[in-house]
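Late entry, evening session. Most of the bench is empty. Finally got around to the prediction I had been postponing all week. Sequence below, unchanged from the version circulated by S.P.
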Amino acid sequence: MAEEKKLRITQIKSPIGFKYDQRRTLEALGLRKMNATTIKPDNPSVRGMVFKVKHLVKVEEL
């Protein structure tokens, strides 16, 4: 089987002062605190969430 690609997503900025839906998007990605890291599958839905909060996160492909 082919290995599924993953994304390592790290929160680098606080959502304070940004729109409520951006804070909710961070929570949906599993990020609740600064410098928190989560690993998610690389698919269009996760990519869309990352695009919405790209100014708050750092993304690395695994």
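Two things to note before I forget:
Strands lie at 6-11, 37-41, 57-61.
The helical segments are 20-28, 44-52.
Will write this up properly tomorrow.
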